[in-house]
Amino acid sequence: MKLSTRHLLGIKDLTKEDIQLILSTAQQFKEVLQRPVKKVPSLRDVTIVNLFYENSTRTRMSFELAERRLSADTLNFAASTSSAAKGETLLDTVNNILSMKVDMVVMRHSASGAPHFLAKHIPAAIVNAGDGINEHPTQGLLDAFSMTEKKGTLEGLKVAIIGDVMHSRVAQSNIYLLKKMGAEILVAGPPTLIPKYIKEAHGVNVTYNVMEALQWCDVANVLRIQLERQNQPLFSSLREYNLAYGIKRSMLDKLNKEIVIMHPGPINRGVELDSDVADGPHSIILNQVENGVAVRMAVLYLLANREN
Amino acid sequence: MKSILSQQQVALSIKRLAHNILENHLELNDTVIIGIQPRGIYVSDRIVNELKALIDPAKIRYGKLDITFYRDDVRKELKIANKTDISFSIENKSVVIIDDVLWTGRTIRAALDALLDFGRPAKVELCVLIDRRFSRELPIHADYVGRTIDTFPSQKVLVHWKEKDGVDDVVLI
């Protein structure tokens, strides 16, 4: 029993069986996290470096905690306080770190494909913790885990992905994963934030009407507006975005059904989600964060255990 | 292939093990039963059923423990994790852990590590259906044994259960 891949670079490379194995292993780690001692000795001979070239709160903390809960030794690297700021190349930095006998690299980078580049050049197992606008596989997995926990199965589940799909690596990973697991997907948001050929590329339906998406779906995965990735304005103002595409409590009250609201964080409160939705009874946003540790433990455990 | 326990002997051994446990832990007042996943569960389920016929079933605290994450050979072979279900405190309790075969002792070593993450028991005892003598790699012994056997390391002890294999018996191959 093992994953079909040596690295976790994206959901794109995983098989349905890989995803099922990760999710079922995460289920057992979630139980570990409920124990008085929330720690197992599985990876006590493994050293992991967290290589973060881009800012992160929950992903970095979640990986760090997952590593410690597995008893791995960890090293933390932030680009802004490292020799990368002096001009050292990515490969030089990583090779120096690997000389210190590191077994795995958890990497976040603003350039799409950076972890794929590393995987070709170094022997350590690589976990992609988000690369540019490409993929964020562990977020996709923890979203799937949270949806399964709430709705029982992904097969036939109707999931709306709402917001800034264009710049979202979370959306990309979610679409790959949900399609592999048999869920139905609808993407919604302003036309300028939805890739033009998404239907042809992924076979997902598109609507520019958020209320229509809410009426259709069982789960609404709402995405953050990523202003930092927009080099020209793609909508007139945050206030107008909220008026046209933001999820408000009044919209949920009009629905004649239970709906699950998800968000990968960080939330722009009052933009894509109003506070009474983000903190309301439909939201499982904090469950997602909790599940993130168990899912990342599963990924690290399954990758570290490979006989290479 | 050599038969170690027939269907009838399996049933008798389990009955005897249940009585042995009760002799030392009358009414199971401060005692909990823990089966080891995955194969020890079949024995522990049977023993718990026997106990239910002997004392008030409400008094029996029975949990299941998976030791996958505590193994010392995780780098050699990856096992699928099973469910752990211990819904009570083991703090200051006498714990009887149950497995099907005691061989090298490594599984029980892992089980002790896992168990201690749930609290500090007053005492831990081990109950096994089969004890493969002379092959221990760690200083571990069983307190309750169904049948003790002598084996070569190359031999395998197969424990079959009706619910999984269609028959209850133990054979040596």
TrEMBL record, chain A:
Molecular function terms from GO: amino acid binding; aspartate carbamoyltransferase activity
Entry-linked NCBIfam families: asp_carb_tr, PRK00856.1
Name of this protein: Aspartate carbamoyltransferase
Keywords on record: Pyrimidine biosynthesis, Transferase
Swiss-Prot/TrEMBL catalytic activity: carbamoyl phosphate + L-aspartate = N-carbamoyl-L-aspartate + phosphate + H(+)
Classification via Pfam families: OTCace, OTCace_N
Enzyme class of the recorded protein, top EC level: transferase
Binding site for carbamoyl phosphate: R58, T59, R108, H136, Q139, G265, P266
Gene: pyrB
Subunit-level organization: Heterododecamer (2C3:3R2) of six catalytic PyrB chains organized as two trimers (C3), and six regulatory PyrI chains organized as three dimers (R2).
Positions of the Aspartate/ornithine carbamoyltransferase Asp/Orn-binding domain: 155-303
Binding residues for L-aspartate: K86, R169, R224
Pathway terms, separated by semicolons: Pyrimidine metabolism; UMP biosynthesis via de novo pathway; (S)-dihydroorotate from bicarbonate: step 2/3
GO cellular component, one term: cytosol
GO biological process: 'de novo' pyrimidine nucleobase biosynthetic process; 'de novo' UMP biosynthetic process; amino acid metabolic process
UniProt EC number: 2.1.3.2
Domain Aspartate/ornithine carbamoyltransferase carbamoyl-P binding span(s) in chain numbering: 6-149
SUPFAM superfamilies found in the cross-reference section: Aspartate/ornithine carbamoyltransferase (SSF53671)
Family: Belongs to the aspartate/ornithine carbamoyltransferase superfamily. ATCase family.
Protein purpose: Catalyzes the condensation of carbamoyl phosphate and aspartate to form carbamoyl aspartate and inorganic phosphate, the committed step in the de novo pyrimidine nucleotide biosynthesis pathway.
From TrEMBL, chain B:
Record-annotated Phosphoribosyltransferase domain positions: 2-163
Molecular function in Gene Ontology: uracil phosphoribosyltransferase activity
EC number: 2.4.2.9
Top-level taxon in the UniProt lineage: Bacteria
Coiled coil: none
Keywords: Glycosyltransferase, Transcription, Transcription regulation, Transferase
EC main group: transferase
Family: Belongs to the purine/pyrimidine phosphoribosyltransferase family. PyrR subfamily.
NCBIfam families per the UniProt record, alphabetical: PRK05205.1-5
Protein name (Swiss-Prot/TrEMBL): Bifunctional pyr operon transcriptional regulator/uracil phosphoribosyltransferase PyrR
Source organism: Panacibacter ginsenosidivorans
Gene: pyrR
